Predict the 3D structure of the following.
Amino acid sequence: MFAFAVRRILQALVVMVVISFIGFSIKFAIGDPVRDLVGISVSAEERAEIRDQLGLNDPFMVQWVRFMGNAIHGDVGRSFFFKKPAMDVIVSKAPATLELVLVSSIIVIVFSVPIGIFCAVRPNHWLSRILMGLSIVGVSIPVFLTAILLIYVFAVELQWLPSYGRGETIQLFGFWESGLATRDGLLHIILPSIALSSIMLPLFIRLIRAEMKEVLETEYIKFARAKGLSPRRVLYLHAFKNTLLPVITVGGVQLGIMIAFTILTETVFQWQGMGFMFLEAVERSDTSLLVAYLVFVGVIFVIVNTVVDLVYGLVNPMVRVAGRK
Amino acid sequence: MKRLFVAVLAAALVMTAGFAHAKTLKLAMDADPVSLDPQVQLSGGMLQYSHLVFDPLIRWTKDMKFEPRLAEKWERTDDLTVRFYLRKGVKFHSGNEFTAKDVAWTLARLKKSADFKGLFEPFAEPKIIDDYTIDIVTKKPYPLLLNMATYIFPMDSAFYSGTDESGEPKDAIVKTGPSFANANESGTGKYVVAEREQGVKTVFKEFDGYWDTKSPGNVDEIILTPIKEDATRTAALLSGDVDFIMPVPPQDLDRLRESDNVKLVTMTGSRIITFQLNQKRREEFKDPKVREAIVWATNNPGIVQKIMKGFATAAGQQSPKGYQGYNPDLTPRYDLEKAKQLMAESQYPDGFTVTMIAPNNRYVNDEKVSEAFVSMMAKIGITVDLKTMPKAQYWDQFDAQVADIQMIGWHADTEDSANFFEFLLMCPNKETGYGQYNSGNYCNADVDQIILDSQSETDRAKRSAMLQKAEKIVYDEAAYVPLHWQDLSWAGKPNLEIEPIVNVMNFPYFGDLVIK
């Protein structure tokens, strides 16, 4: 376990260094942050002076080494636009994204498991056919469009739910700005979380169905049935447990992707999370915030993958044995 | 039971009557102020903010005249000086008294601000006559002194003096880091900033010591939320989540016009959109016939109708109506036959191939307009190779003049015609800074001279004649391709009286907003 942890941390560090390097290369191509900080009539000399103050005129390697030097002390630079340390900005935006992903994940789990199992067990049932048909539609409609449609139906036409933002939030534990603790906040999270889960849900339904069908054909299931175990027990304990393995793997990766790429959903709903922040940083070429965020996302992916590996070990003991060798 | 019901109803009525004065405005814009320091950046958003929390000495009215704010009256005392008589008994949000000292202090700070120093370069040291009288002096006779006085939003000099907790001076102008002025404000404006989370929400509350008690405005709280996504901003208004949006996305105009529970207000704007034809890069563009042919072949009335959905005004010149240089004779030009004939007469009857760049997220429909232009040029034998890019990358490319034709839109910070020429059409000169955005490299000594003379001509009629002449010269020489002035738009709930508070500068005077 200890060796495993050390390996992981080293891996994470390598990933972060590589990402920071790539982020820096992008930074040089994405545009000049100073343009966004001054009015259009400001002279070129003035702009050059500001660039000098920010150290943006130094060569690539000088800037990168300086960044790495500061990063070791936990300083990943300062957002030009927000006028404060980039990490503070990211941390203040993280709760919004994480809550959105959490609620979306719950929606995905609650719906995909029973629907997936049902479609696997009764593949020819009319309901299964409808659900599978819908899932194809769901996968192919872009999130952006789903989000706009949801807003127009539920906010504009029916006026049941709010159209944008997080609503009323309260501070939990002093730093976590939560929208899940107020009624207003809960109302605000419904539409964005449905929009965000609209892509994942069909994917998971199809995944669970396919895996389950495969597992149901295996020998040990037939044997369990022959032994006279109750169909329920066979289905939920024996079959479903083995279905879970690939689902966890994919789920882990998808969770990372969801956290990193809530961009579209957040933009449409003016949801003040990290995805929205990232998009705006690109548009403003707020490069230091951009690099900091990319590094942060790298860390998230490493953490999620580590957790997935550990859970995998819990579900399937064989993996643990292989890992110990 | 019935009696009880009536009693409850009556009570409810009394309650609402009591709240009739207290109105909250939920406002959604495409962006929010980047700072609380009015001098940190010169941008539309910051000026809109300044008009909420600060007051200028004087301000523009809807018909482009000046009206008193913190200056009650003013008079020109000589060629260089305008004497301002300040309003007495005005308090800053900190409780400090507003005097001439604050005006002088603010002017000195403007001259230190990267964004404003250019505009305030003509100004010399002001002279304080007494607490409520100040002479604002320019180095040379300057016709735009009053235009610039609309940018003087006096700041509380006592409040912004000294050092903050971290030992930094409180009057520092800091663009990319924390500063006292970025996070604190003390102006004389109708609203104080009660809470602010940048990019998320700003809450303005009425300042109870506000001097302007004559204003009919009855909004005592403004909640400003930026909503970047166009469709969402419209949806927020239609669903009733917000009361007022600006700008209105062009694609939603018809929808909002038809909606019963929304009032839409549009107005011709003063931002001109143009294409510049680079004469340094291409010999062809030195031929006036070719330039004329391009202008005649550009169907800008068609672009306004089809692409802008009528949400713009086709232009034949830079100065919009109401500006001193607006010349009524210079109408938009479009005649394909004439354009073909001009091409045939030019030195390049067989046409040629050019490159072109345009932004794709800076002006309304910028990419579509450029694509339309490409197909229009094809009709006169000019093949255009167009590349579009986001604004974050565009301006560096523009400055480097990487293409033969480049798109640029311009709004005059001075609300005056000369500004267009100074930046877009005067001979590019690194020393003086003129022609900073003249990527067409058009250079005409006569035009330059007229503009330079206009800078110190204080006789309005004479100056108008000069500027109109300059517009005529660049029109006749087809110095650039004018397209249109973008319209401005605002939309709100029907009980908001929007028309009186909006203007062509796009700083709605929310302090005067009446909610019925």
About this structure: Chain A touches chain B through 46 residues (CB under 8 Å). The CA atoms of residues 119 and 127 of chain A lie 8 Å apart. The beta strands of chain A are 78-79, 84-85, 170-172, 176-178. Chain A is about 75% helix and 5% strand.
